[in-house]
């Protein structure tokens, strides 16, 4: 299950990235990959490099890059794992959101309730980062993020993201399918749900001092949802380790659900028999339900869900799609749950 292998659908990520979005990073990445001198990213990187002429640039530039890479490597030992190969099974119907836009317009209430928290989030230490796996599993345990990264195979996926506030983006995540985490955890058959929890250190994130919120941030999925092929645990974005404001070093991505389900900076996975109550559900259960699947026909009390604004496009709005356009992958999960409140 955890053997690293190249899959048939894998292509170099350059093959599918709009050149404009890609160019900005490619030189830096090439330098970083070469300077690190490690071939940990395997065949993908070799192919990716050979496509670009293969050799590591020489001279002053590479010396600086080597120093940069060393600094980056010390702060985050996973740096050399990126970029990973893009999985071409998942396709976009829109442009990738500009990196500057998506990484400076965020929801991360631990750092404040505005969209402008990216600077505050830089205080989050992401190493060491321990992840607790407990509850109904064969053996409860704690695993460091870099050990977890060794146990899985990274790939890139471009996904749409739809916040219940009716804004949307499309970003290239790097990470691994959540079903690999579930396999790694070895849940018992009694486990019906996965409950996830974000770090809770008020010295690092001032929002955590706001006592009217039910911290820590909690989210949950059924085991069927968590093992659906779309459910993804992101460790990277735009071909680099994921930035702190977007949930470093481990963040859930469930593109068919409203964005609040995509819990950031996860420190704990608990396998349970009972349905967990999520952060927003505790705050206002009438507005934020457990399932929270995207549906343009079911308005939230404060936001129509019919259309969405693509951030970074001067207010362009597009129609919202059922399951955010991912119905082919996930609609069957809910076929026997029509009596439940599946939307918002
Ligand atoms: N821990 C935590 N996770 C979180 C949130 C949060 O406030 N705290 N906000 C959620 C919401 S409402 C959205 S829309 C997405 C936003 O992700 P982005 O900032 O990477 O675009 O993160 C989700 N995950
Ligand atoms: Mo959101």
Ends apart, CA distance between termini: 35 Å
Query: What's the overall average pLDDT, rounded?
Result: 86
In CATH's first tier, which class of the largest domain applies? Alpha Beta
User: What is the ordering of alpha helices and beta strands?
Assistant: EHHHEHEEHEEHEEHEEEEHEEH
Total number of beta strands:
14
Structural domains: how many: 2
CATH superfamily annotation of the largest domain: Oxidoreductase, molybdopterin-binding domain
Largest sheet: 7 strands, mixed
CATH architecture level-2 label of the largest domain: Alpha-Beta Complex
Briefly say what this structure is.
This protein is α+β, with helices and mostly antiparallel strands. It is 22% helix and 20% strand. It folds into two domains: 15-75; 85-329, Alpha-Beta Complex (Sulfite Oxidase, Chain A, domain 2), CATH 3.90.420.10.
List keywords for this structure.
alpha+beta; single chain; five-stranded mixed sheet; 9 helices; 22% helix; seven-stranded mixed sheet; binds molybdenum atom; Sulfite Oxidase, Chain A, domain 2; 344 residues; binds the ligand Nc1nc2c(c(=O)[nH]1)N[C@H]1C(S)=C(S)[C@@H](COP(=O)(O)O)O[C@H]1N2
Give structural notes:
With 344 residues, the chain is an alpha+beta fold. It folds into 2 domains: 15-75; 85-329, Sulfite Oxidase, Chain A, domain 2. Helix content is 22%, strand content 20%. The strands form 3 sheets. Strands 5, 6, 9, 10, 11, 13 and 14 form a 7-stranded mixed beta sheet that branches. The protein is globular and about 60 Å long.
């Amino acid at each position: 299950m955890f053997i690293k292998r190249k899959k048939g659908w894998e292509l170099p990520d350059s093959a599918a990235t709009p050149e404009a979005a890609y160019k900005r990073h490619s030189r830096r990445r090439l330098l970083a990959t070469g300077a690190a001198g490690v071939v940990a990213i395997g065949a993908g990187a070799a192919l990716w490099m050979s496509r670009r002429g293969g050799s590591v640039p020489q001279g002053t530039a590479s010396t600086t890059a080597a120093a940069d890479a060393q600094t980056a490597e010390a702060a985050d030992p996973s740096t050399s794992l990126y970029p990973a190969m893009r999985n071409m099974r998942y396709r976009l119907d829109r442009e990738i959101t500009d990196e500057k836009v998506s990484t400076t317009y965020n929801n991360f209430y631990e750092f404040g309730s505005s969209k402008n928290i990216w600077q505050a989030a830089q205080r989050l230490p992401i190493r060491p980062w321990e992840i607790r796996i407990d509850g109904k599993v064969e053996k409860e345990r704690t695993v460091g993020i870099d050990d977890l990264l060794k146990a899985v195979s990274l790939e890139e996926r471009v996904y749409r993201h739809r916040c219940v506030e009716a804004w949307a983006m499309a970003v290239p995540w790097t990470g691994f399918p959540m079903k690999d985490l579930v396999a790694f955890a070895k849940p018992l058959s009694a486990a019906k749900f996965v409950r996830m929890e974000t770090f809770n250190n008020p010295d690092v994130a001032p929002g955590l001092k706001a006592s009217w919120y039910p911290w820590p941030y909690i989210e949950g999925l059924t085991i069927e949802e968590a093992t659906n092929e779309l459910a993804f645990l992101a460790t990277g974005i735009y071909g680099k380790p994921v930035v702190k404001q977007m949930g470093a070093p481990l963040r859930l991505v469930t593109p068919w659900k409203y964005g609040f389900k995509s819990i950031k900076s996860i420190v704990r996975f608990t396998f349970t028999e009972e349905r967990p109550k999520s952060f927003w559900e505790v705050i206002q259960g009438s507005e934020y339900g457990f399932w929270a699947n995207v549906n343009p026909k079911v308005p939230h009390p404060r936001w129509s869900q019919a259309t969405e604004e693509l951030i970074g496009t001067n207010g362009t709005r597009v129609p919202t799609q059922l399951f955010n356009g991912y119905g082919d992958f996930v609609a069957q999960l809910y076929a026997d749950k029509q009596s439940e409140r599946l939307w918002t």
